[in-house]
Amino acid sequence: MSEQPPAHHLPVKHPPKRLWQKISLIIANISFACAAIGVVVTLIYGGSVEPDIKAAMGAITFFCAAVGVVLKALGGTSIPNLKIEKQDSDKKDA
Question: What is the pLDDT of residues 44-62, one digit of tens each?
Answer without folding.
Answer: 988 888 999 999 999 999 9
